[in-house]
Amino acid sequence: MSNRIAPLTVEQAPALSALKKALGMVPNLFATIAHSPAAYGGYFAFTDALGKGTLTGREIELINLYTSELNGCGYCVSAHGTLAKRFELSEAELTAARHGRGRDEREDAMLALVQRVTRTGGGNTGAELERAKKAGLSDAAVIEVLAHVASKLFTNAVAQVAQTTIDFPQQPNLPRP
Fold first, then answer.
1. 57-70 vs 105-120: helix axis angle to the nearest 10?
2. How far is CA 49 from CA 44, 46, 82, 151, 175, in A?
3. Which of 28, 25, 38, 36 is nearest to 7 (CA)?
4. Which domains does the chain have, with CATH numbers?
5. Which residues contact 93 (CB under 8 A, 6 or more apart)?
6. Can you say whether the dihedral through the CA atoms of 30, 175, 117, 138 is positive or negative?
7. How far apart, in whole angstroms, are the C-alpha atoms of residue 13 and residue 76?
8. What tens digit of pLDDT does each residue of 66-84 get?
9. DSSP state of 85
């Protein structure tokens, strides 16, 4: 499968050089987003700000994995399957997260909220919101969950519309019920 929107090179988009220096590579997804300097800069400003929020790195990666799984984005599932290992998620925990299960009630409630918001855009979230709050998520944490879902919607859409070639170890497809 060829890309519908080809990734740019560092020569074509010099803004990618900082990413290459930081990661040692330029992920194809970001090289694709770089077609729009506004989108590229805005995405990183948004996610950098969210990284300073109340959610842990582990929680952010759980959100990223599950949102990407729900949206059927193989690129982002593979990328976050690799990135989540920075937070010591085991293979079993990666698979559980992709099924919407965490290691405790807080993570389970957070992922239930992710599912409802991803599937409905936020409609009828009363039960999930109540569960998340009972599990200890503050109002700030709930808003951050929503922001991370929105961030993944963007990257999932770019990867799927552009048919971005996966440049991370590919995660296996999950069996469907």
1. 40
2. 8, 5, 22, 12, 35
3. 28
4. 57-153 (1.20.1290.10)
5. 103
6. negative
7. 22
8. 999 999 999 999 999 999 9
9. G
The first and second tokens of residue 147, run together, are 């922001």
Half-sphere exposure of 65 (CA within 13 A, CB side): 33
CB atoms within 10 A of CB 151: 18
The C-alpha atoms of residue 9 and residue 67 are separated, in whole angstroms, by: 28
Nearest residue to 70 via CA among 105, 110, 100, 46: 100
**Global pTM?**
0.94
User: Which residue's structure tokens are 């990867």?
Assistant: 159
CA–CA gap between residue 110 and residue 62 (Å, rounded): 9
- Mean pLDDT in residue range 160-166: 96
Q: Tokens for 67?
A: 């949102």
C-alpha torsion sign, points 96, 97, 101, 107 = positive
Q: How far apart are CA 171 and CA 134, in angstroms?
A: 33
Residue 2 has pLDDT above 80, yes or no: no
CA distance 65 to 95: 9
85 vs 152, more confident: 152
